Give the backbone structure.
Amino acid sequence: MEAEKHYGPVWFLSGEKGGRYPSCNAIFIKGPNILIDPTATRERLEQIHDEEGVSEVWLSHVHEDHIRHLSLFADCPLGVSREDAPGVTDIELLLDSYGATGNIREYWHQYMLDKFDYHPRQVSRILQAGSVIDLGGITVDVIGTPGHTPGHLSFYFREQEILFLADYDLTKFGPWYSDRGSSIADTVRTIELLRKWPARVWMTSHEMGILADNPGELWDNYLKIIDIREEKLLDLLAEPRTLQEIIRACIIYRIPRKPESFFDLGEEGHMRKHLEKLIAEKRVYREGNKFVRV
Ligand SMILES: [Zn+2]
């Protein structure tokens, strides 16, 4: 994975280990000097800050890894979607959006301060899904791509024909839809929208990085992970199970991992989404504190 690649004014800045979580890849738009997701590496962002100057920071969405080095740009106007904006203004609102409670919330609160340098910020520009922003010869489509978070945005650079997918990252881990405002149905709709979007180059926030060929079956594999998770859950529900038993089955992370307070957040969040879906489809029902397969 190359550390950095320039497509005219669109610069792809690679995160550590190819943008593997908790790192992240970033985009810098040279000319208007807009940084999308203040991530990549702190060293490279410091350099860009000092040598290029950054006029504005935009966020694809508000998750801890995508705001990791936001504090380097304390004086820059900040653009984010309306739906995701609250989490950047107040850590408690971000933890609310994660659905974090009890010990898990305490853990994540500290983790965001220690690892992601969380500082509350005011939002200066609401990035409107469906809008087209003319940056003087660089035309950017702001694409509403809810599911991962309710206000997740992807960006299309028309002249360069580059589609920045952000966290629809095509990884083997699969799509993330654990937050309170996340949705499996929206995730599926968004993936269908993105896979049909005509582009020449695709960029992701994590691991895949740059794809010069149409992702094609990578989209199928990515979508399939949602079904595999559901099948595993239905298999587990051959016997009625409590939510705690379902969490301990590690359907999302596959094997038990430490610290539990970190991994349980996503494990529980995803399982809740699948249970809600299956209950709505009348394939599962609740009896006392147990979930029962029909
Ligand atoms: Zn994310």
